[in-house]
Here is the input.
Amino acid sequence: MTVEENLNEIKKAIKDHIPPTALITKVDFEGPEVVLYSKNPSALANGEVVKELARVIRKRIVIRADSSVLMEPGSAIEKIKQIVPQEAGIIDIKFDPNFGEAIIESAKPGLVIGKAGTTLANIKQSIGWTPVVRRDPPITSKIVKSIRAMLLKTSDERKEILRKIGRRIHRTPLARGTYWIRMSAMGGFREVGRTALYLHTPESKVLIDCGVNIAASDENAYPSLNLPEFNLQELDAVVVTHAHLDHCGFVPYLFYMGYEGPVYCTPPTRDLMFLLQWDYLDVVEREGKNPPYPRKFIKKLLKHVIPLEYGEVTDIAPDIRLTLHNSGHILGASIAHFHIGDGLYNLAYTGDLKFQRSRLFEAANFQFPRLETLIIESTYGSGEPFPPRIDSERELIRHINATTERGGRVLMPVFAVGRAQELIVVMDEYMSAQKALNPVPVYLDGMIWEATGIHTTYPEYLNRDLRDEIFHKGHNPFLSPIFHRVTGSVMRKEVIGGGPCIVLATSGMLSGGPSIEYFKNWASDARNSIIFVGYQSEGSLGRRIQKGWREITMSEDGKTRAIPVNMSVHTVEGFSGHSDRNELINYVKRINPKPEKIITCHGEEKRCTELASTLYKIFRCETRAPQNLEAFRVK
Here is the structure.
């Protein structure tokens, strides 16, 4: 069946199930969705008719008002303001005629939505436009603003992109003989960094993550996209589990090389991915290296993103459906579940996993409708378990207090996304509420402030307790007055030359960014401390310091100088956004249904192989720890 024949079948089903009073004027594919344009969308207001149609055609359906019945924007704005209570704090209302959307930016989106969506329904019925509600973040984010503006500006282009993607998803299936499912390890197997996993069937080709290893040499920094079975022009989709560079940093390169297809991820991942990729090129350029792709391809990637919320099932290829679930790692991080071959096989890839409730997020999801193969990260697949989180917090406070009491300064190199926000919540608690942390200034340098602004844009992705504290108790730790943003090099010099303080600075592995400046200036002073709270990749400067190197050679202004490391060096493990060995085993124990096969990745060689061996001994299922460049069949 061709795409047009498929569309005609859907139109026939619409004729059979949708009342003629709906006055359907057009039916089309837009990405994974079937879009119905109606001159009388109120005829479909109760939703049951649309649900039944979706069940029959087995597609996601979107109803849009025909352009002829959309209210004039000026009148629509007045109508929206009449319907929405003033306390909602509407900041702006924009209109996207290509998608028939009225985009309402508000300080309190819940009041725009109304109980069970009643206010939204009232708006749609009154003006014809489909209301889309966006939060105005309490911490202004330049990235969020620029992304929203860019998406609106390019909506006509994005609509055409979605039409092309829709036709590819709903294309004529190939004639099939034996059905198989294969995976190719293109990066991030028996190593940490440059994660890329290629899922292919006789019908479809999907790339899961495409990262960079910022601590590696050039030949090991990027995924092996030159595998004989990988053809960029045949690629149906890219799925990004989360925004850390080792999972998404190389995605723009795909567009640089000619990819024109979709990228699926959660909305926070989209925004954070843009931030981190942009900063990555800044760092590369400052180091005098050639960037792997021009900046314009980060913007091009943005236009091809199809955002998905947790639990939203969508077609991404003729024989593959994708659902993203919370992985507990960072904001918007996902476990990617693939429903393959119309239920023939189910595969879940954890991405980076935290199977413990943290200060920021709920523990990773472990319930799936079906599951035959699990691909699980192994960053801490061997070694000692992490201490309880409360013990880690108290240890951190002890190290900080001991340093500031002797007149020293504390440097914490952190990833801008995840660990930084976790520490912000912890330090606000211990300094403001418990009064257990010495009251010294806490400075945030690098991308941390911007990343925190994105966190405040998506509070629905935070855990229940933190949301309750923000919305019902009126205390937002991200807005605490104890934190000060370092606004540039002048202020940074003042902090470096100032008195006792705490500095959270990027990058987390001392591979670039302002954390290097603090380290170079503070390392020789024994009163100071450096505290590592996140993973330090093999080969990174952070790992060398962590191992106890007492002298570091660094290049500065074309000259090489030796920096003595006299400052105290501490590692506090319990803040990791990854699961320790026991949590990984417990995750497999709790996962439902139980997988038949388990594949380990994203860990140094010993950790991947040891976790695979342990899981085999405990659960007596097939396990393996593939190497990079291996291809293996799962079905």
The mean pLDDT is 94.
